[in-house]
Amino acid sequence: MIAVTILGNNSAVPAYGRHPTAQVVQTREQFFLVDCGEGTQMRMDQHKIRRSKINHIFISHLHGDHYFGLIGLLNSYGLNKRENALHIYAPEGLEHVIKIQLALAEAHLPYPLHFYNLNEEGIILEDEKILVSTFKVNHRIPCFGFLFKEKKFPRKLNIAEVKKLNVPKEFYENLHYGEDYVLPDKTVISNEQLTFPVLPPRSYAYCADTAYFENICNSIHGVDLIYHESTYLNELSAKASARFHSTAKDAAMIAKKSNAGRLLLGHFSSMYEDLSEFEKEAREIFENTEASVEGTCYVA
Fold first, then answer.
1. Given 65, 209, 224, 250, which residue is catalytic?
2. pLDDT score recorded for residue 155
3. Alpha-carbon gap, residue 44 to 82, rounded angstroms
4. What pLDDT does 62 receive?
5. Do 146 and 60 form a contact (C-beta atoms < 8 A)?
6. pLDDT in tens, 77-133
């Protein structure tokens, strides 16, 4: 299971109840913060996000609407006596900015803070259950998207069958990972008889601020859920291109070419109050599209 809670889906200036970019990606056991615009920690409180469960923060690029909320969050963690290490993945330069802010305030965080510079595409975090990789997008300054992919889940044991055939406990892990069991008389018992299938692993792609950029499709092909910026409607496509942003039509084209399962639109310009036209424009190309709504949790 991968779930995404939208904390902010507007562009630089808050408007119409929408806020700068931030979202929380949740798996079965972990919470990840993706971008941290102004007011992120207040949005966390509003939507009952347990900030103490966040150990990894991903910052797509160093435009203020994507990280100006970070120093406040880090300071709050310190005031709340956090002890667990916090890991921050961002383009080069963010560590320098944060250290200056802490030094000028003579603030000393009571927890370890680790920075990882994003320079190239590839895997940036991996454990036994999740893999996070980054890919380049096309923006005015270095900017990265993030792909979250669950690893294949172990199959569940059919306890009745396992006990009936006296399968030794030391073989249980082999069954979890799909291996057949061979009886002493060489009879092969299929794994399907001894286990139950589990839900297939899911995937989620966060496409940060970017002009229309088909290279993205190579990195996220077949993704279950994609969040792609759509700052403008297509009537302002020239403005979008000049500012290295996308339209709803652009986002839909990326979703279609990526063979994505579902598309969420976001990073809306403050010039728009009604977002229904964004959905309408995108659905002409990619039907399974929604304009993201702040406070809503979307399951991949």
1. 65
2. 87
3. 17
4. 98
5. yes
6. 999 999 999 999 999 999 999 999 999 999 999 999 999 999 999 999 999 899 999
pTM: 0.91
pLDDT over 90 at 152, yes or no = no
pLDDT for position 263: 98
Q: How much is the average pLDDT of 266-280?
A: 98
* 274 is a catalytic site residue: no
SS (H, E, C) the chain: CCEEEEEECECCCCECCECCCEEEEECCCCEEEEEECCCHHHHHHHCCCCHHHEEEEECCCCCHHHCCCHHHHHHHHHHCCCCCCEEEEEECCHHHHHHHHHHHCCCCCCCCEEEEEECCCEEEEECCCEEEEEEECCCCCCCEEEEEEECCCCCEECHHHHHHCCCCHHHHHHHHCCCCEECCCCCEECHHHHEECCCCCCEEEEECCCCCCCHHHHHHCCCCEEEEECCECHHHHHHHHHCCCCEHHHHHHHHHHCCCCEEEEECECCCCCCCHHHHHHHHCCCCCEEECCCCCEEEC
